[in-house]
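Example 3.2
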Amino acid sequence: MRFDDSMKSRREVLALAAQLGAAGAVASLWPVELSAQALPGKHAQLKALSVRPLDYETPVALLDSLITPIDAFYVRCHMPVPANTDAASWSLAIDGEVTSPLTLSVADLRQLPSASVTMTLECAGNGRAFFDPPVAGIQWRKGAVGTAKWTGVRVSDVLKKAGAKAGATHIWIAGADRPMGTQPAFVRQVPMPKAIDPGTIIAFAMNDQPIPAVHGAPLRIIVPGWEGAYSVKWLNKLTVANTEHDGFWVASGYRYPTKRVAPGSAVDAKDMAPLTGLVVKSLITAPLDGATVTPGPVTVAGFAWAGETDIARVEVSTDNGATWQPAKLVGAPVKFAWRRFEFGFQATKQETHTILSRATDAKGQAQPIAPPWNPSGYLWNAPDQIRIEVKA
């Protein structure tokens, strides 16, 4: 199946409607496709899908490295970036089911043992534009993903310092961004076992640099292996709780059908469950879609990831899925991070090749030809595909 752009204008209308519905009473409309002028600094390479709030996709050409440079990293915001992200005046409150409620500065946090995690961060809606029938929301294609090294302190150390009580079941996570119009406040929750996992950290650095404002400065929680919205930006409050949060983003948002549903159908709330881990997926980063190559050896390369699970193998097809061959996995696996794959073949004559990549994780889960449809357009993970022309 070739993903066509013929639905583009219809999808953009749906995306705009979804943005307006979520934002409530907003003073003006904004185009879905814009230049990158609204995003500061070197991020101008990214593709704007929304500027109110900021949602910018990374072109595939910028994703051909294990660590994604900061200025090439996609930007996802549910609400406007806070006006003040100054680390010197920032504080993080820890309250709820604790024996010693705390308010910690960034300097206080830096006094705790440091920890780093290299992880692939992906928006749950990455690939939403490929669902048919279309669904509302930001129409991400392939570039709402990137891998970075995050450095900070373990959430478990902060909870220990505050004296989290034994009966606590969750932490509620809040940031300093404020809703637009009637939009509900952005609060997420993480079950306690994931919260105290050594990989779950409060980060103050990204790729060994201070986190930029658009990526959550000065503090961002990092929940590795889970869909990106758990890694809340502009972190300023953790509440230890023995109940689930009843806000929109937990009780209604970021939920997924527990069973297959007919494309385009409504799903009853009782048949929905919260998203957690990412699904197995791959991305071809070379050659680029639409490239022209000369006859001879061609190397297909890219990355595969599966959230909390390792990649077991990647297969590549150069004939639109008729046959598949094993690709080489490059380098040692890094927990929570994508794995590079490479595959070489001989382009012997002038023709068109539709090339696909299909990853399988350590649990035996492979990318499906047709991912389950869902009304929010989450977790698209069909085999990636590109088309190249061979010309002398």
